[in-house]
Amino acid sequence: MNDVMITNIKSLILPKKTDGPLKGKEMDELNIVDDAIVVIKDGKIVYAGAKTDEYETKETIDAEGKIVSPALVEPHTHIVHGGSREHEMSLKRQGVDYLTILEQGGGILNTVEQTQKASFDELLNKASVNMTRMIQHGVLTVESKSGYGLDRENELKQLKVSKALEDKFPVLMRHTFLGPHAIPKGREAEEFLQEMTDLLDEVKDYADFADIFTETGVFSVDQSRKYMEAAREKGFRVKIHADEIDPLGGLELAIEQDAISADHLVAASEEGKKQLADSNTVAVLLPGTTFYLGKNEFADARGMIDQGGAVSLATDYNPGSCVTDNLQMIMAIAALKLKMTPNEIWNAVTVNAAHAIDADRGTLEPGDAANIVVWDAPNHEYIPYHYGVNHAYKVIADGKLIFERPGLNL
Ligand SMILES: O=C(O)CC1=NCN=C1
Ligand SMILES: [Zn+2]
């Protein structure tokens, strides 16, 4: 006897399960089945498709004629961090840009100070608030980066908090070491980068990926190459914060280093975008960051997809350059500013996001984890269209209903 059936599904969104990420034209393919059901046993999908009387279950969850999809996948966050940087808003109002704030010892370095001071429990409690909100917004797979410790003790502290989050919540996580995130005050780039590179052996027990911030005033392409090569030698798949602000050629470096993802890419070169199609690298675009930094130029998602590249989306949730944990909002910005289609957007926050962090998530094939969201929306186009609110109505993790949006007590 099966456990649970999700009934009364108006439309069931079924991203395609493939060995690699969806690329180019494939990104606009999205299987949607009307008048559907999902059957679950032991937290796994038994069947997801057109209604049939073939299955019996002990319980049902009523989708109430709403739409249903796999739970969303969040492939790029800095969820573990201390403090906040709302005070920087006044600097931004005065036109002080992100890299100048960092150069003046603010920005990332401000968060480093607050993260180093914060205890393990303070970091865990703070990140738990955001993890709860992400789950309530339909996300059940989350990547989490270090990079606010900038020394052995605090980088390990961040990674251990990230692991504790995964134990505490019914989410699948991927953990990324981002030791080379900024250069501590008074330190020299090369010697600090060597210190972070020397940590790679130890962080291997806590981290799935190694990441670096390749940017003017942070780490150069050559320094990044050296670090990525060292990380790969130690068995890490690598990621890179690339071409976020200045066009340093980070995307080309990512592809050269067989990075699992290249993230940001607002200033990616035409050459890099062309190479994306034949690479194993997923472009993780972060349009919320572009919006938050007040920039007008967004990453060229259209150019990347139309040239056969694989694109995914993420919030980049962090206290200084994208302070939102609402991935649905990013879906809307992707529609409005990246000119992505609804089908591309849904694939970008499910299967392609899962491939960007090597997670078997984002689909509802038999045997897949029964991570499912019932959305209070008439169709799949509605969510990128109606922005700034939470459309998640019921969230089901491994077959268990863990969130149901409350109504009003009138
Ligand atoms: O500013 C931050 O805290 C996060 C960030 N790292 C690289 N770009 C943004
Ligand atoms: Zn980031």
From TrEMBL:
CC cofactor: Zn(2+); Fe(3+)
Q: How is the cofactor bound?
A: Binds 1 zinc or iron ion per subunit.
Q: Give the EC number(s) under which this enzyme is classified.
A: 3.5.2.7
Question: Which amino acid positions bind N-formimidoyl-L-glutamate, per UniProt?
Answer: 148, 318, 320
Q: Which residues form the Amidohydrolase-related domain?
A: 67-399
> Binding of 4-imidazolone-5-propanoate: at which residues?
85, 148, 181, 244, 321
Q: Does the keyword Transmembrane helix apply?
A: no
Q: Where in the cell is it found?
A: Cytoplasm
Q: Which GO terms describe its molecular function?
A: imidazolonepropionase activity
Q: Where does Fe(3+) bind?
A: 76, 78, 241, 316
Pathway field: Amino-acid degradation; L-histidine degradation into L-glutamate; N-formimidoyl-L-glutamate from L-histidine: step 3/3
Q: What class of enzyme is it?
A: hydrolase
Pfam families registered for this protein in UniProt? Amidohydro_1 (PF01979)
Q: Which UniProt keywords apply?
A: Cytoplasm, Histidine metabolism, Hydrolase, Iron, Metal-binding, Zinc
* Primary subcellular site in the record, as a coarse category: cytoplasm
* Physiological role: Catalyzes the hydrolytic cleavage of the carbon-nitrogen bond in imidazolone-5-propanoate to yield N-formimidoyl-L-glutamate. It is the third step in the universal histidine degradation pathway.
Q: Which family does it belong to?
A: Belongs to the metallo-dependent hydrolases superfamily. HutI family.
Q: Which NCBIfam families does the record cross-reference, listed alphabetically? A: hutI (TIGR01224)
- What is the name of this protein? Imidazolonepropionase
Name of encoding gene: hutI
